[in-house]
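Module 6 notes. Inverse folding takes a fixed backbone as the condition and produces residue identities as the prediction. Think of it as a translation problem where the source language is geometry and the target language is the twenty amino acids. Below is one complete input and output pair. Work through it position by position during the lab.
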């Protein structure tokens, strides 16, 4: 299906063959067999990821240090009911504290073991949600398979960061928005108070009552969490000052341009460790940082323009818009840490749970970008930091692929939803999926 065509309406009830409410024994057996196969593959791939995390596989100690060092240090401060605002690496909204305190739920394990165990559990919940979404009338198993098979491409990194937990909130929000917009909005608000970007999942909600309900619910949940953490913790907004001091990280799009310039001798700067990351210092770095911010603003304005101009809505549109929005904000960021790929793979997987999605080729480009990301970090990270030609090529290839995928995502979303002729598109209303139509009526 081309991006310019509108998917036909496929009611949930009509998409399945007529039945009397009970699956046939043969179909039930095939379903159980498929689930057992998925479970076995999940166990095998996650066991491999855990093995890479625990053993010194391609500098896994560099991967583990965030939990055993940074997160544990934050935990030691958070248990005193204070945010670690004096630590410049603390750059997260206040509800992130709940993630770093969560290992207390498993007191019989060490902090490292408990954090990883909870992260693996969240990974399994994401997969379960994607499998459930596949059972919808317009559903597809492709989303669950994408998450199942591509997360291990990032090696041990997903289990050594807290981005799987944040991705779970974004995935849950998108899956709930379809029939329960209030709940989806609440979850998006919670996600925003953990790491901001899950709020972008609301960008593509169908016009009308469902959007109002989701946005109001998100705002109320954000306000409630801010109030709770302001009461419980000292200096709950201290992260704002630390975040503003970030520079241009090595792995960012602007960073790859500086790396190429430094490799060719056209730029005299250097790489240094600051604000908890390897960043560039030298001439033109502030200009690159401002350019990244300007691109983010331009990207946001384009997304708003899409929202105003879009007329053709399907059940996949909110999912596709969320992926496109997060890709725009990721690629234009001053920071593209390797764990950011967890977000993009999770959102791409949600898109693929719908047969109406326009983002299928983009999702597989992200899978390729995940492979390059692991080659950049941790496999050949030393080459990247030493600015070798090989390290420069890997980073530029990864970022170039992400940039291309982002532009293609936006183009496909625009063509599928914005009528070519102004004023056209209302006639496409009957082609909108019934669930989206019901959602906009509330």
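Target side of the pair, the amino acids:
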């Amino acid at each position: 299906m081309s991006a310019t065509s509108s998917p036909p309406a496929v009611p949930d009830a009509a998409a399945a063959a007529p039945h009397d409410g009970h699956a046939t024994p043969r179909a039930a057996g095939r379903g159980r067999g498929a689930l057992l196969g998925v479970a076995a593959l999940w166990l095998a791939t996650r066991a491999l990821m855990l093995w890479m995390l625990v053993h010194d596989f391609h500098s896994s100690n560099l991967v583990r240090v965030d939990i055993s060092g940074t997160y544990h240090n934050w935990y030691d401060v958070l248990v005193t009911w204070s945010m670690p605002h004096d630590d410049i690496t603390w750059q997260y909204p206040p509800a992130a504290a709940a993630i770093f305190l969560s290992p207390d739920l498993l007191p019989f394990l060490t902090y490292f073991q408990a954090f990883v165990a909870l992260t693996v559990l969240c990974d399994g919940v994401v997969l379960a949600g994607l499998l459930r979404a596949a059972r919808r009338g317009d559903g597809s198993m492709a989303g669950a398979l994408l998450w199942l098979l591509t997360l291990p491409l990032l090696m041990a990194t997903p289990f050594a960061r807290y981005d799987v937990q944040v991705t779970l909130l974004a995935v849950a929000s998108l899956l709930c928005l379809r029939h329960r917009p209030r709940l989806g909005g609440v979850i998006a608000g919670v996600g925003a108070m953990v790491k901001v970007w899950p709020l972008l999942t609301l960008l593509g909600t169908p016009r009308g009552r469902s959007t109002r309900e989701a946005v109001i619910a998100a705002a109320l949940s954000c306000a409630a969490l801010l109030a709770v953490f302001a009461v419980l913790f000292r200096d709950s907004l201290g992260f704002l000052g630390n975040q503003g001091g970030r520079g241009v990280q090595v792995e960012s799009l602007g960073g790859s341009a500086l790396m190429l310039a430094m490799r060719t001798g056209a730029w005299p700067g250097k790489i240094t460790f600051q604000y908890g990351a390897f960043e560039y210092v030298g001439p033109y770095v502030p200009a690159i940082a401002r350019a990244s911010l300007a691109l983010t603003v331009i990207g946001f304005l384009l997304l708003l323009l899409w929202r105003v101009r879009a007329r053709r809505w399907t059940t996949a549109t909110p999912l596709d818009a969320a992926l496109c929005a997060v890709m725009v904000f990721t690629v234009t960021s001053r920071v593209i840490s390797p764990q950011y790929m967890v977000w993009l793979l999770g959102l791409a997987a949600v898109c693929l749970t719908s047969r109406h999605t326009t983002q299928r080729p983009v999702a597989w480009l992200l899978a390729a970008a995940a492979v390059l990301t692991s080659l950049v970090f941790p496999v050949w990270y030393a080459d990247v930091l030493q600015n070798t030609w090989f390290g420069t090529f890997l980073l530029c290839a990864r970022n170039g692929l992400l940039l291309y995928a982002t532009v293609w995502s936006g183009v496909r979303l625009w063509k599928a939803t914005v009528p070519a002729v102004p004023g056209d598109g209302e006639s496409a209303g009957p082609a909108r999926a019934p669930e989206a139509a019901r959602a906009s009526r509330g």
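Reference fact for the lab report: Residues 36-441 form one domain.
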